[in-house]
Amino acid sequence: MKHIAVWFSALAIWGLGCGGADSNAPKADAGAASAPAQTASAAVPADGEALYKKNCLICHQADGGGVPDFQPSLIGAPLVIGEPEPLIRFVMFGEWPPDLERLEGYGNTMAQYQHMKNQELAAVLTYIRQSFGNQASAIGPEEIMAARGSQ
User: Fold this and answer.
1) What is the pLDDT of residue 146?
2) 125, 84 Cβ separation under 8 angstroms
3) Residue among 114, 58, 54, 118 nearest 89 (CA)
4) From 15, 37, 68, 91, which residue has the greatest number of CB atoms within 10 Å?
5) Are 62 and 68 spatial neighbours (Cβ–Cβ below 8 Å)?
6) Inter-axis angle of helices 118-129 and 43-55, to 10 degrees?
7) Rounded to an integer, what distance in angstroms lies between the CA atom of residue 88 and that of residue 38?
């Protein structure tokens, strides 16, 4: 009986941590003016790191390595270090890019983050693209806004 209680507790914690999406959160206004593009700076990764810890860490882990057969690694992943738009669209809308091979063994659906503000998404995606050994370009809020407009 004790094992069942532990299992349900772990499941509840996982359920609360994965995704972090709030269905009651206000939706970002696609027509709202965005801040000017940001280059990679200490401010963006710092904000991005906090957002990563809040929204991504439980599934993708502190080192970005993911969990085998549960959530994939972010380290050197083509979707992470490639062109920004496919990553943005995947994180916001769950659209897997047709030109990338699907990852085998990962049957979990990632939460969608349309509810996050343009600046927040830009910060967390820049953090992921420039952390864990990744060396990809920064993503600006205007790129997030453009992806919202193309939906």
Assistant:
1) 95
2) yes
3) 114
4) 91
5) no
6) 90
7) 16
Fold of 2-20+30-149: Cytochrome Bc1 Complex; Chain D, domain 2 (1.10.760)
Say which residues have a Cβ less than 8 Å from residue 33's Cβ, sequence separation at least 6: none
State both tokens at 41: 């700076």
51 CB burial (10 A radius; 0-12, 13-18, 19+): buried
Are 130 and 138 in contact by the 8 Å Cβ rule? The answer is: yes
Give the model's pLDDT for residue 70.
87
Helix (H) or strand (E) holding 91: helix 84-93
Mean pLDDT for each 10-residue chunk of the chain (151 residues)?
43 43 40 40 65 95 93 94 95 87 74 93 98 98 92 63
According to DSSP, residue 25 is labeled S
Q: What's the confidence (pLDDT) of residue 106?
A: 74
CA 13 to CA 8: how far, in whole Å?
9
